[in-house]
Amino acid sequence: MIKNICYELLDKTKPTTDILLRFEDMKINREQYVFLKDRLDNFDLIIDSEYSIKIDSTFDEYKKILIIEIILSISDLLKPKDVQLDQIINDHSYRFINFYERNIQLFNSKK
Fold first, then answer.
1. CA–CA separation, 104 vs 31, rounded Å?
2. CA–CA distance from 2 to each of 63, 74, 76, 90 (Å)?
3. What does the H/E/C string look like for the chain?
4. pLDDT in tens, 24-79
5. Residues 10, 20 contacting (CB under 8 angstroms)
6. pTM score
7. What does the longest C-alpha to C-alpha distance in the chain come to?
8. Dihedral sign for Cα atoms in the order 86, 37, 30, 108
9. From CA 13, how far away is CA 73, in angstroms rounded?
10. By CB neighbour count within 10 A (0-12 exposed, 13-18 middle, 19+ buried), where does 41 fall?
11. CB within 8 A of 68, min separation 6: which ones?
């Protein structure tokens, strides 16, 4: 099962606000990772968002741990207030966890 480890605002170097969302799944095997990798690469195409999304994943086959990092880039022209920023982080975290869990279920049903 995946869990949200943390989130943080990244250094300000561009005209965007970049938020890193980090997730971890500690019970994943190589077959699941291969199945998920393609779907993770297309996650940004699946969601309807006004923010740019970049996904990176790292799989430790020995420990069976998958780390997924999502960077949300919000144009400073669209940047909401801090209160709304928390809601955006929560919404995208929840949306990603649901997406991930549905795909794990899909993988398990195909076996």
1. 11
2. 15, 25, 30, 15
3. CEEEEEEEECCCCCCEEEEEEEEEECCCCHHHHHHHHHHHHCHHHHCCCCCEEEEEEEEECCCCEEEEEEEEEEECCCCCCHHHHHHHHHHHHHHHHHHHHHHHHHHHHHC
4. 999 899 999 999 998 888 776 556 567 788 899 999 999 999 999 999 888 776 66
5. yes
6. 0.84
7. 46
8. positive
9. 12
10. exposed
11. 2, 22, 23, 24, 25, 40, 55, 56, 57, 96, 100
Summarised one tens digit per residue, pLDDT across range 74-110 is 877 666 666 588 888 888 899 899 999 999 999 999 8
The residues near 35 (Cβ < 8 Å, ≥ 6 apart) are: 103, 107
Give the whole-number percent of the chain exceeding pLDDT 90: 42
Tokens of 3: 């869990």
